[in-house]
Amino acid sequence: MQTFFSIAIDAFAYGMVLFVISIGLSITMGLMRVVNLAHGAFAMIGGYIASFAAQDLGLGYAAAVLLAVFGTVVISIPIERLLYRRIYGAPELTQVLMTIGITFCIIGIANYVFGPTLKTVPLPPALQGSADLGFRSIAVHRLFAIVCGLAVAGALWYAIEKTAFGVKLRASVDNAAMAAALGVRTEIIYAVSFAVAVGLAAFGGVLGAELLPVEPYYALRYMVTFLVVVSVGGAGSIPGALLACLVLGGIDTTGRYLMPEFGEFFFYLAVIAIICIFPRGLAGRAR
Amino acid sequence: MKRAIIAAFAAIIMGNAAYADTIKIGVVGPFSGPFALQGKNFKAGIDAYTAMNGTTIGDDTVEIIYRDLPAADPAQSKALAQELVVKEKVQYLAGFYFTPDAMAVTPILKQANVPLVVMNAATSAIVTKSPLVVRTSFTTWQTSTPIAKVAHDAGVAKVISIVSDYGPGIDAENAFKAGFEKEGGAVVEAIRMPLSTNDFSPIMQRIKDSGAQGVFAFLPSGPTTLGFVKAYNENGLKAAGIKFFAPGDLTQESDLPALGDAALGIQTTFHYAVSHDSAENKAFVEAASKAIGNPAELSFPSVGAFDGMNVIYKMIEATGGEQNAQKAVDAVKGLSWVSPRGPVSIDPESRHITQNIYLREVTKADDGSYYNKEIQTFEKQGDPGLAAVK
Questions:
Q1: Which of the 8 DSSP states describes residue B339?
Q2: What CATH number has the domain bearing residue B196?
Q3: Model confidence pLDDT, tens digit, residues B8-46
Q4: Are B118 and B331 spatial neighbours (Cβ–Cβ below 8 Å)?
Q5: What is the pTM of this model?
Q6: Which domain holds residue B81?
Q7: How far is B255 from chain A (nearest CA, A)?
Q8: Cβ contact (<8 Å) for B198 and A115?
Q9: ipTM passes above 0.90
Q10: Residues B158, B223 within the same domain
Q11: B113 touches B93 (CB < 8 A)
């Protein structure tokens, strides 16, 4: 029983970290219909900025996180205006080629500017160390990641389902021409959504840095995992992504505990099974 | 008259043959991509050697030609080696970070009449694939065997082995198991985990549940090592007194700033620490730091490359610049010299380097940086892996 709880808590923490990083991708792919393979690169930029702010500028953790999120958004604005705007509504292949190209450019620049070594974001004393849960100890920053993940999920769900902006966003996604005819400034809606997605990527990059350390190949190394989460959850669905992260985190963690020599077998078996039964993901909507 | 002209031509041609003016060395390594840091270290080691010893040997000038092989890719490795031999006419091949890449080149050496000096690839079997291979790095067996004795001497009887599921990981597991069981200890469990593992908490739980007093680990350096060491601390294993043993790949100097306090006190065995205290190493580190730009990026492949260049220079001296692979290799069999890592020699039998293996502990220096402090020396270690493979 103790083992069961141990695995469950590990799975939950891992799933929430995955969620925070992947949800931005789910928004770009599901709501904006852009296959954004540069998502990992934005998460990486966030990690680098936070690491630079905390280690070289000596800022506190909270300031470093804020700087990372806003800094990444600021960097992404010219990229969105000059590059992404051309590929909205373009065929997937064009989008993939463009965004993978952006990814390679960012990898090269990161390698040149920050060097190929690992970077970490130093944690404040309050998040260091481990907390005793009675039956086992868990790192405090993992609990923090769980809380952040839940907060992000709640806030996004509220913004998309309950606010006027959410209504306009959903309208623009379903029929951009009609929404524009009704007076919705779709360009602004898209730009804001893109900024939110990028900001979430950066936030996830910082929050997950303990688990997925920042280095130039971060941008590609974890991209497959993020894409899997989005496709299993159903692009654009927040409850779907949350469910996918918890299910996949659970299967991955259990498999790794009980049968590590099978590697990622169970993870991908689960992915294949889910996609066979739900081709649009757990909560994907038919187009 | 005609005869005189022919004679003059013949004299010029033969004269040219007698002074082979430029000797080319082809170096294959990962100079871009995820492993670029290791390639950079190759280059730093080579540049340090040429800076300290010049680029002329007798009348001959040495020219180094680099070829980039970003990730393990045997087919591409062979193609690059062939291109170097056929088009660039290199007399020596060197470098090679990954085992499969080095293995892929061994079949062409004899026909090309070119020796191969392996500067990193660490699987025991490479030297058996061709009599023209010499290795100046280390093998995973060589660096992992002494830690078994260290573990036993620390009073640990039961150890769990955790390795990444790939060639060097399995080598490390076998080496440790063989060494530790010989000492009278028991490996209670041996887990091989996938290379792409990011979250090590479940593994840490396995270690706790196994009841082992110590853990032996081998992972490729970089992000995975960082995650593993952090998980070891955060899941309370360090606090619970479970000891951590590993070969030095895990605490290579370029990763130490990121590992930080999490790595303090970890003991590893390896053939080279940048902090090694000797006049030779001081000179080497100074030259190599200048070559690499950022001294924090310097780590073990640089010394493999530095000693590899030493071997090649000796080969060129022995053959007088003439292309004769067998003679060149024979000339360095049994060669011994003082490397930045300590006294070393080329074993005449296996053509692998015999060297001291050091036990090191990650320590914080006075200026707040971290380094591998050598605390014990295992002298003149050969490669136990070859005997085990046979």
A1: E
A2: 3.40.50.2300
A3: 555 555 544 445 578 999 999 999 877 888 899 999 999
A4: no
A5: 0.80
A6: 2-138+277-351
A7: 7
A8: no
A9: no
A10: yes
A11: no
